[in-house]
Amino acid sequence: MLLIALSSIKLGADSYLSGYAKDSVEIAVSENIDIFMNACFLFELVCKVIAMGFAMDEGSYLRESWNQLDMFIVITSLLDMALTNVELPVIKILRLLRTLRPLRVISHNIAMKLIVASLFESVGAIFNVIIVVLCVWLMFAIFAINIFAGKFFYCSIGKYTYRTKYQCNSNGGSWLRFDANFDDILQAMLTLFGVATLEGWPDVMIAAVDTVDVD
Fold this sequence. Notes:
By secondary structure, the chain is mainly α. It folds into two domains: 2-121, Four Helix Bundle (Hemerythrin (Met), subunit A); 124-209, no CATH class. The protein is built from ten helices and two strands. Strands 1-2 form a two-stranded antiparallel sheet. Helix 1 packs antiparallel against helix 2 (25-52), helix 2 (25-52) runs antiparallel to helix 3 and helix 7 packs across helix 9. The chain is elongated. The protein starts with a helix and ends in a 6-residue tail after the last helix.
């Protein structure tokens, strides 16, 4: 667990080394730490395989999904280390997989394993809740369309001064639609979603209060 924590901290520290030259002391130290960490993780993997068996027997190393994740992270880390001087787009993607290292904490903690397993088992129930919420939003979206369709407009030169399209155009302005509106079912549901998350809801409220009639 200590090595995993140190490896995760090291990944965060690497973000400060992007401006250093490849032959600098800092980069060399970072690479040596990587080699040490990968060697330790490889040693752990080999010990587990020797103790548990690789894949054939029941309860062997690869029979557990968390060990599969561990092995995948270790192998990608070793490949990344072996191909350090190779500059290819595929290798850059491989290096991004280093960000998976903190996930090894889960595989070494029984309580975290239980939480993750429970989350995966509850996906079906969560999906049912999402469907119910979408049905509720759909009802309110249809209701809002009947009340506010075509009314969420404003004048480009005086948002709350010129109240009609005629006044706006007569004074040289453009009659524009608010980004959040209820002109169609998709846009209505997106607006309701924004209101439900409390993101910019006062703007929607003020626009709704300011409505009079179409144009």
